[in-house]
Amino acid sequence: MKVLTAPLETQNYCRNRRAEGKQIGLVPTMGFLHEGHLSLVRGARGDNDCVVVSIFVNPTQFGPNEDFQSYPRDLERDCCLLEAEGVDLIFAPTAEEMYPTNSATFVEVAGSITKGLCGASRPNHFRGVTTVVSKLFNVVHPHRAYFGQKDAQQLAVIKRMVSDLNMDIKIVPMPIIREPDGLAMSSRNRYLNPEARRSATVLHRSLQLAKGLIEGGERNAEKVIAAIREMIEQAKLARIDYVEIVDVEGLEPVEEIEGEILIALAVFISEPRLIDNLHIRVPSK
């Protein structure tokens, strides 16, 4: 397994693999890997001849009062985990290598797909995401790129960017990986103390409540949202950022639940902000 930090050296490595006729799979991460990340790596390993994992805590997707400085980092640990998974290359650039002095170019997806949900409370977050992902795509030039469905809005935005810019890359969504009690795996879970960790299970439990209501015939989105909010508000240390039910294409809020919808929520559990979602297909009337 190779570990490279320079974009040009990484570009040359990947260009050579493509010249050999090898299929390249890319797993973009911010490191401090958990089983959710490793499930993406295994998916890439099964589909491709060469697997590249990027590890880069991207400063442009963090707001001024967010946790960029404190975001967990452990490159040595990550390298050990990825070597055990048979990864061919880790691309771990510095911020200076990804954003040279006087860098002034950004990639941005406009419209409702980035304005609501996390985009409403984290201005410019998705501009940072699409900019860094497009840079990673330009460096690695993968055949396939793997993203977890926990970050459902990010996944939708990246798929739109790839489609709009005619990028010859297949985006492969991968299922949410959960702890035994239902909490979606996240690098930010490490911020939770034992009491907060217990409270955090309310995210998944509230989504299961919503699923039960919908399966029982409820089609009014406001009523389902109200039930979710009521459950979360009863949990200790929980403070809601948003609870929304949206269509899966443009992520526009819906009034009537039908077709393919996404129930998405973001909740502060003490200080950490956690997200989760549930994708449901509801037969139309």
Give a verbal description of the structure.
With 285 residues, this protein is an alpha/beta fold. It folds into two domains: 2-174, Rossmann fold (3-Layer(aba) Sandwich); 187-276, Pantoate--beta-alanine Ligase, Chain: A,domain 2 (2-Layer Sandwich). Helix content is 39%, strand content 21%. It has a six-stranded parallel beta sheet, with helices on both faces. Strand 5 (144-148), helix 8 (152-164) and strand 6 (170-174) form a beta-alpha-beta unit. Helix 7 packs across helix 8 (152-164). The longest helix is centred in the middle third of the chain and has 16 residues, at 125-140. The relative contact order is 0.13.
Features:
285 residues, Pantoate--beta-alanine Ligase, Chain: A,domain 2, six-stranded parallel beta sheet, three-stranded antiparallel beta sheet, 9 strands, 21% strand
State the helicity in percent bands: 25-40%
**Count of beta strands:** 9
What is the element string, with H for helices and E for strands?
EHEHEHEHHHHEHEHHHEEE
Note poorly predicted spans: none
Structural class: alpha/beta
Measured on Cα atoms, how large is the radius of gyration? 19 Å
Largest sheet: 6 strands, parallel
Brief summary:
This protein has 285 residues and is an alpha/beta fold. It is built from 11 helices and 9 strands.
What's the layout of helices and strands?
Elements: E1 2-4, H1 7-19, E2 24-29, H2 35-47, E3 50-55, H3 75-84, E4 89-91, H4 95-98, H5 112-115, H6 118-121, H7 125-140, E5 144-148, H8 152-164, E6 170-174, H9 194-200, H10 202-215, H11 221-233, E7 238-247, E8 259-269, E9 273-282
Parallel strand pairs: 1-4, 2-3, 2-5, 3-4, 5-6
Antiparallel strand pairs: 7-8, 8-9
Helix pairs in contact: 7-8, 10-11
